[in-house]
What does this fold into?
Amino acid sequence: EEHTDTPVTAVGTLRRGEGGPERFLASAAEAFVGGATVDWAGVFAGTGARRVDLPTYAFQEQHYWIEPSLDRQGDVASAGLSSADHPLLGAAVTLPETGGHLFTGRLSLRSHPWLADHVLYGSALLPSSVFVELALRAGDAVGCDRLEELTPQTPLTLPEGGAVQLQLAVSGPDSSGRRTLSVYSRHDDGASEASDVSWTCHARGVLTSGAPAAPDAAAQGLGQWPPADADPIDVAALYEGSGSEEDSGLVHGPAFRTLRQAWRRGEEIFAEVSLPEEQRADAGRYGVHPVLLDAAFHVRDGRTLGADGTQVVLPHVWNGVSLYATGASTLRVRLSPAAADGITMLLADESGQVVATADAVTIQAVTPDDVAAGGRLPHQSLFRVEWAALPPASVAVAEDARRVVVGPDAAELLSLLGGAGAAEGPYAGLSDVVASDETVPAYVLLPFFSAPRNGTDAGASVGDPAEVRSVSRRALGVLQEWLGEERFAGSRLVVVTRGAVSAVPGE
It folds into this structure.
């Protein structure tokens, strides 16, 4: 896959007039700084080089270069556009014939790294709170102070490489001043022609004017804090441990784990959400930061899992959203039941001033298939990998066929096979099988179980490049030995893995 968002470091080894050891060491250092693994012990072997202690004072670690931001990606005015003045949008333009407006932006996990911390079934999913924030920003630009309705259509997942182009289209007003809005995206890998990539609609909604006056926060239970007569909720247990959200396939990373405290009083839920320190500087550029709006629903009376335990329910349809204040980095939240299984939302800042309200928010189940459809890239639209279970009876194996298990993980595989003559071993390697002077085996099973089951044990270096290289070298060595031994010409080598590929959605 080609894309432009992955940093790449290219390092030379020789230069004109510079081909000695000093040039080589300089190139090795450049590669190391760029992320390459360098065996420094081998580089300095025989030179007398030794390790020295660092200075006893701490490095200040301050730098003064300007960080790249969306505000400095180019002069949109030179293209006849206006700045959208929003962290998620780059430009805006008014459509003369209809009185509509078009807002554009570009999102990626590199430009907006905090979005990588909202993961569902293994994909970075854009939460519906982002669509709400975009709609409120558009409403402010066109003079509409109320989001009457917002309904997500197709989930929007962000690719690991590349980005997505975003368009928010707002229609001209009808006779009552209502405007419709739609949010679209398409994949942008920096290489494909724009005309080759189609747009996908992710949300539709309606903007209106005439928001009601802000309610009295004290009268709504947000004046006294913590709320009186409310029972505290164990916030940590919501994110980790048995029965937590992670068991369902939903993972909130550090950027989205902003729920600090929570309480329950009857059918009401109260919570306090607060942005991480590194995100507070941008809070003033949002109406309500999507991270806070999403975290407001992290406590929903235990309704995280679907009835069958395999589905996640998330905020879906938003009705009657009004914004009264902007820029809050900490919010007090009150959720209460609404009609038709909806949830009424009230947000206030630390001083008790109302920030936003929603008449009703409806939650809905999201399945692995929903997420997969929303994240399929253009070049993946016609192809997919689908694993089919192979019935044991479909493979004919002679009962007297000799089967052996080799390698460091042979004992574990033998245990899984259940013994009782299913296979022989364990053998340390192929040479031990040859040296046994027994009948040449019909099947040689080579297991690779180094990675932990389901990635639950971080101590096994899952995904560590050094571990991947080590396992690959071991597999290559076995294959070379296999091909060089004529006795195995009529045998089959069966490589058995665990956790090496995703065989079912969400794995």
In short: The chain has three domains: 1-36, 86-189+198-211+223-376, 403-452+464-498. The first strand starts at residue 82 and ends at 86. DSSP finds nine helices and 22 strands in the chain.
